[in-house]
Structure formats: C-alpha cells, structure tokens
Amino acid sequence: MELTKELEDAIVAPGPQGFHPPSAAELGVLTPEKGHGLKFGHVVAEEQAMEAMARTMLTRKNATIFPGPLVLWNWNDHAADKAKAVLELAAQLPDVLVIPMPDYRPKYPKVEPEEVINPNHPNLTIWGNKIEACIFIGVHCHYANLTLKMIRAGTNCWTSAICAEQGHEDAMFTVRDSDAAKIRRVVAVFKRVREEMGIKLPENGENVRFTGLQSRVHGGLTHTNPLDFGLSVDPASGNAAAFGHKAEQMQSEA
Amino acid sequence: MSEGLETEVKTNPQGDPITSAPAPAPSTNGGRKDPHGAAKSQVEVSPEFMFNEAPREREFITGSECAKEAVRRSNVDMSVAYPITPQSETLQLIGVLYGEGYVKEFYRGEEEYGVMSAIAGASRAGVRAFTATAGPGTLRGLEPIVSWAGHRLPAVCMFTCRVVNAPLAIQPDNIEIAYLLNSGMLVFHAENQQDLFDFIMKGFIISEKNDVTLPVGVCCDGFFVTHARGYCAMPDKKYKLAGRDPYRGSVPVLDAENPPARLSRDAPVQKSNFMAYNIHAVWQQEVWAGVERSRKYIEQYMDGLLEAQDVDGADVLLIASGSAAAQSREAVRQCQERGIKAGLIKIRSLRPFPTNELRKLCTKAKLIVIPEFNYIGWLAKDVATAIYGFSKAKIVAGPHVYGGMSMPVEMITDEIECGLTGKKSNTVPPSAIMGVADPAAVAEFMKSI
C-alpha cells in the first residue's frame, strides 16, 4: 500500500487494523450532514467521497459490489428502480464482481463465502475472493455497520457505503441519502473518473465477472452485461408496499 | 365499548377536579358521542412544530398526568401495563387514553418480564411503544430491557425511580438508574413535570432516528415528580407527532410475509454456538455507536445534554440530575446570597453522557459538589471519570440521601461550606471526597511500593 499523506491522516484507515480496533464512533467519527460524505473519517463534499470510491474501485483488485436486501427485494417500485441504478453502477467497473447479501441470517451449517456475503462473517467472503475494494449498497444500516467494522479489522479491503440514510462512519468512503437519483449521480462520477483515468470497458458491455456459482447458473459464461438484466416488477405481487412501505420512503432527492 | 371512560369533570388521580381543563363540549349526536372522536381528529405535525412552534398553555398537573399528556400527543401505537408504585397511575392514565382512542393497543401484562418482552415484540413489529415501571419492576424487567438495545428496538420506557433494596419500601431513591446506565439505552433524567412531558415526546423522536434506533429510558424521581403537581406547558392536544416509520429503521421490521425478516431475527446473538466471537463484539460497538450518534439529536431537540446556570467565573459547581437539580438550584441561590460564586450544571442526558461539555465547564472550578438521591453516587463516579485530568477541582461525591429521605437544601450548602473551608463534613465521609490528596501521605505511600 502506498503511504500517502491522506492515509497518514486517516482516522478510519484501511485495514487490517488488528484484533479488535475501536469503532469509528469511538474514534470520534460520526455520520456526515446532508450534502456531505466521509473520506477516511473526515467530512468532505459528497462529490469527493464519490470520486474516492470510483478511484478505489477502478484500481484495487477484485472490486466487488455487495447489494443488500433493500435493493435485492421488491419492497416497492422505488426499490426496483434503485436496483436498476445499481446495475448501471456495475456497468462502469471493468471485471467487477457482484456478490449479494440477500439477508442477515447466519448461514448454517456452512456459508458459501465465494457466493454470498453475510454480516456475521463478512471477512470470509473478502478473504475467499481476495477482494481489495468493495461497495455496500442497500444494506440495513445496523448490519452494514457490523460488516464494515469486521472488514476493517481483519482484511485489507477498502470499503465504500452508498447509504439511503445517514451514511456509515465505519466505511472508508460513504455518501448518504442515496435514492435512485443519487445512485445515478454516483454512476456519472464513476463514468467521469474512469474516463479521466483512461480505463476502458469491454466493447461487448460484458464487464461483470461471474462468481463460480453464477457462472454455472449461466451456462459456463465468465462475464455478463449488467444492463442486459431486465427487472420486470409486478407491483401487485405482494411486496411490502402492500404493508405500507411506500416508494416515497426510499426517496430523498427525487 | 362503553361511552367515554372519563367523567364529565376531569380529575387528577387523587380525585381532585382539574379546573384548568376545559369541560367537554355537549354532545350533538343524539346524546351519543364517539369516544374516539377527539383522537381521530388529531392532526399530525412535525417534531419541530410540536416542540418549538406550537403555542403552549400551562397546566398545574402531576407528573403522571404529564406523562399521559405526552403520550396523548405522541401517536403511540401500543402500551403494556403492569402496576407498581409510584408508576401505577401513569399507566392507569394511559389506559384512559386507550379508551379514548389515543393509544391503539393496551393491555396489562403478567409481570414486568412479560411487559418488557411484549414491548420488544411491539417495537420489533414496527410500532411505537410505551411503558413505565419503577424500582423492583425495573429490575424484574431488566433482562428484556437490556436486550432492547442489542435488538435495536426504538421505544420509550419511563422509570419512576423508587427504592429497590430490602427492606422493602416504596419511597424515592434513584439507585435503579445505575442499572440502566450500562444497558445501551439512552437515559434521560427529568427534574420536574415539564421535563417529563418533554423528554417522553422527544424520546420517541430521538429513539426512532435511523442512526440511533435505540430505546430511550426517561427517568424521574418517584413521588417528587410523579405525584407532585407542577406547571407544565403543553401544545394543544389536537396535535400529535407523526407516527413511527418502521421502514426507515436501521434493522428490518418483523414482517413474516416478506424477507429478510424472520421471527428470530437476530439469531447470531441467540445461538452462540455458531456465531463468530467477532460479531458480538462489533454488535456491542455498534449499539454504543448509536448512543454516540444520538448526541446531535439531543442537541437539536432537547437543547443539549446539560443545562449550565451561572457557571462562568464560578468557584463552586453543583452537578446534579433529576430532583437533585431542583434542590441544587435553590442551594446555588442561597450561596450566591452569601457571596459565594456558585453555579449549577443540570445533566439531562446520562446516556450519552456529556463528557466533553463537562470537561469545558469544569476547567476553572475549585470545588464540585454532586448531590444525589441514592447511596452509591453513580453520577459522581461518571463526573469524576469524565473530568479526570481536565479539572483540578476538589470533587465531593455527595451529599446523598436514600430510602425515601428528602434532601434539605442545607445539606448541600453545608457541603459547599465544608469543601471551601476544609471544615469536617457531617454527612459526606472522607472517602467520598476526591482530589484532595495529602502530599505527605502520598509520599509515605510511594516509599512503600
């Protein structure tokens, strides 16, 4: 790891931080105010945090997006739109992995750490795939915070959190209030940074790398185009909207 | 359901008429009225409007009635009751609110363990829940209470503190707060009826903030606050806070129809045979991180974790919470009349604790006196820990009264005089005085190690 001034000044520094490091809150780092993000524990303009995420995801090995239940499940129409925005984000990252966190239950008797990530032992997934950069998106805040703490303690993975609420101080980079519109702003920043860095995407658009199981499910293919995944959603199919979970509750910007 | 549960003339729990409350308007519906009519017509308002903008009118009512009026305006979905003095009247009055439709569900639990477990279930299912208990009830319910924070359950529980020890007594004593301080919940300590009203309502809002998602304990000293009347300024009861939005919490609500929730949502905590040691450790860190994040909301809604009065230039600071703050305020007044530069720091929030605020405020004090209504002096311990190295003041952990005793103001002023003059105290033992090490004794001790 190149030791830059930024890393020397980092409060929430990349790991491995040791056996049991203090939480970011114990270090005095709290979630950012509206319009701001966090970079290594320091409050920065939102755009700066997004750029840091982009550079990290474009340069470190085995960059991975970890989508959580809030974008994996059909809570309401806006959740589906956010899921599409996440796929658009994936489409900006060459050779990116997409490994889901579908729920928060410990996987018993055995987790498949190369295929899923779980907040109870996220380090296994990071180690198993040698992931050095990741983005969490759509994970309920409590579980995201557990996960981020454990990853910072035991792995060398640089973490980003795109949060629908107040952001995550235990991530190296975070932005808050991330509805579909905000995620698409992140996508635009990723596209700009990628182009500035001269990093090209495959011409056939197949930039997402399958995990072993994903490859088997898709007939042995190694890569896919994330924008080919159509998300057809039937709003009347018994989603949580029927119980009062409305799209407006997930929207902050648009 | 029967007609309105309250008689036409409103009374307080002792049966005295509340003359300041307007009489109900005569029915125009053929002699029948909807007992839930007033509740149904309540208007949802923002916390900012309710707390800062809505006009308020003063009533001279008991603390129990203040709690009732706070719950009336807080859009509470569920409350579970179990009687114990001095809390019983509060939940009796919440029962009246249930009859009037202000609280949607209400029942009497089997005992406090069941009550606190039911509150956990209600909160986990996504509704706004309220209960109250006291003394032995607090300790009986303590196991589920201390699991609330770990399960990230927003709720408000009022603790009307009383004696818990044997021999049994029902009198004021706030030792039970010592047990709550390390539970992971936010703990506020109300000085008077107004505080109780405000802290309960604000507690719901802070408790439900996504980055907090923790229970709030609103404590007050039993009888002094619950049974005594005081002035309480309240917004009109036509207003209520917006309801809880469970889908904005930091954990998914219990929803058997939709993943990823399931009945035993937090299995790793409950099945330690297949959890990593690490998960529980970071889980605890996360609970206390939530406590830290609540500071900004306490600043926003409660005007800060503490209130400082006449602190600038003060030689003597009294630091107190709850009813001891009221006694201390009078002690400060008497000291100032005698020319002693004295100030008061009233602590509203015990968790999170105003560590940084105290460090700044106590820098120049020569003497700090911490009166408390309990034997062990939990507040003095927290204060001394917080300001260690940031103040050279002598700290007097006392005076203390307990077991139902009242605290004469003279007890406090005497302690101030002893602290300033070096005169021997009649109430505080030398072991409770910190920061006055005898250099000769220290030198002797150092020779022996």
Summarize the structure.
The complex is a heterodimer of chains A (254) and B (449). With 254 residues, chain A is an alpha/beta fold.
Could you describe the largest sheet of chain A, including whether it forms a barrel?
9 strands, mixed
- What is the overall number of helices of chain A? 8
CATH homology-level superfamily of the largest domain in chain B = Thiamin diphosphate (ThDP)-binding fold, Pyr/PP domains
Q: What is the CATH class of the largest domain in chain B?
A: Alpha Beta
Mean pLDDT of chain A: 90
Averaged pLDDT of chain B: 89
Biggest interface found: A-B, 43 and 37 residues
Name the helicity range of chain A. Answer: 25-40%
Q: Can you offer a commentary on this structure?
A:
The complex is a heterodimer of chains A (254) and B (449). In chain A, helix 2 packs across helix 7 (180-196) and helix 4 packs parallel to helix 7. Chain A is globular. The N and C termini of chain A lie far apart (39 Å). Chain A is α/β, with parallel strands linked by helices and 254 residues long. In chain A, strands 2-1-7-6-5-3-4-8-9 form a nine-stranded mixed sheet, with helices on both faces. Chain A is built from eight helices and nine strands. Chain B is α/β, with parallel strands linked by helices and 449 residues long. Chain B folds into two domains: 1-303, Rossmann fold (3-Layer(aba) Sandwich), CATH 3.40.50; 307-447, Rossmann fold. In chain B, the strands form four sheets. In chain B, strands 4-3-5-6-8-7-14 form a seven-stranded mixed sheet, sandwiched between helices. A six-stranded mixed sheet of chain B has the order 11-13-12-15-16-17. Chain B has a two-stranded parallel ribbon with strand order 1-10. The mean pLDDT of chain B is 89. Chain A binds chain B through residues 20, 22-26, 30-31, 69, 73, 75, 102-106, 108-109, 119-121, 123, 140-143, 145-146, 149-150, 153-154, 165-166, 169-170, 238-240, 243-245, 249, and chain B through 152, 210-211, 213, 245, 247-252, 255, 257-260, 262, 265, 267-268, 271, 274-276, 278-279, 281-283, 285-286, 288-289, 292-293, 295-296.
